[in-house]
Each structure stands twice: as structure tokens, then as C-alpha cells.
Amino acid sequence: MLGLAEGVVGRSQVWKGMLGGLVGGALGGVLLESAHNWLADPLTGKAAGLVLLGASVGAFISFIVMLLARAWLEVTSGKLKGTEFILDKFMRAGGPAVAVGSSPLKSEIVLPDPDIAPQHAMLTGDGARFSLKDMSLAGTYINGKKIQTVHLSNGQKIRMGNTEMIYREKR
After folding, report:
1. Which of 15, 30, 122, 156 lies most in the core, judged by the most C-beta atoms within 10 Å?
2. Contact predicate 70/170, CB 8 Å
3. Between 113 and 50, whose confidence is greater?
4. Which comes out higher in pLDDT, residue 35 or 122?
5. Taking a C-beta distance cutoff of 8 angstroms, is the pair 60, 17 a contact?
6. Please, what sign has the CA dihedral across residues 160, 164, 170, 171?
């Protein structure tokens, strides 16, 4: 029910999940029938096919969301190096702000770094771009300069504690 509520409130992302589910379901259905026909035991074929169907739906939902992402943070150092946080659901004007910090209880984007405050910074979308506001004592840095509040641009380097990220967006 919680997932459904998220979808109803934030309609902008629902179509991506539906498209990914449709493509993944179609491919998974083909794999389901193929596995059923390839394997001698019908029960094993159905079981393998259902696993392939589920994996296909999940993979394509993820793929479509990543492919159509408008804004994301790419972690370039620290324990989460290589991780990307999709920010699209926070993009809309008047939508929820997203907290970035070290506490899973106080932040939506959690960075396991002892030098990052539990709620280190806030990202706010205005429909077209994001603003980043520092909320820590240690500071938040954009391209090496300490900031209070800044409008983010594609390619800017963000540092919080010992963790570095790059803000990415598609236009």
C-alpha cells in the first residue's frame, strides 16, 4: 500500500515503472514459455520460467528508470563509490526535499562516512533544477568551495566529509 501511495502522489515516475514492467513482462513471458518448452519436466520449466519472468520485469523497470533519469548523484569516492542516486522523484516544484547525510533515520540519501552529519545537506527541486543547502557544521563543498545554498549545474563536484559526488543531469 505504501508503494501505491507513492505512485499516486508522485505520478511523474509511475509511467516509467509501467513501461519497464510492460517490456520486462513481454520478454519474461517469452522466456517463461521457452523455459517451459526447453525443460523436460513441466514443473521445473514453469518454475524456471517464473524466475526468469520476475527477473526480467525487475531488470527492465530498473533499466527504464536509469535510462530516463533526468538528474542523479554519482558517488566517486568512499564506501559507495560507483553508486548513483536518482533524484527525479524530488524534482517537481513544491515536492519533498531530500536530505543527504549519514543517518538512515534522518536522510533519504545515506552516505556511510563518519565525517558527514546525520542530516548534512538538503536537495530541493524547483521543477527544472536542484538547489543544495548545507546544514552541517563541517561544511559542504562544490568544486572545492564551501557553500551555504547553491543551484546545481551538470558536472559539479560535491564533497561532504570524505565522500565526493558528481551532480549529473540530462537536458
Report:
1. 122
2. yes
3. 113
4. 122
5. no
6. positive
Query: From CA 8, how far away is CA 10, in angstroms rounded?
Result: 6
Alpha carbons 128 and 91: distance in angstroms, whole number: 7
Q: Kind and range of the H or E element at 49?
A: helix 42-67
Q: What is the pLDDT of residues 14-62, one digit of tens each?
A: 655 565 566 666 666 666 677 666 766 777 766 766 677 677 667 666 5
For residue 108 the three cell numbers come to 533519504
- Which grid coordinates belong to 49? 520460467
Q: What domains are defined for the chain?
A: 2-67 (no CATH), 71-169 (2.60.200.20)
**Interatomic CA distance for residues 58 and 43, integer angstroms:** 23
CA distance 119 to 107: 6
CA distance 71 to 142: 17
User: What's the CA gap between 45 and 34, in Å, rounded?
Assistant: 8
Cell of 85: 542516486
* Mean pLDDT, rounded, for 91-120: 90
Cβ proximity of 142 and 156 under 8 Å = yes
SS3 category, 168: strand
> What pTM was computed for the model?
0.65
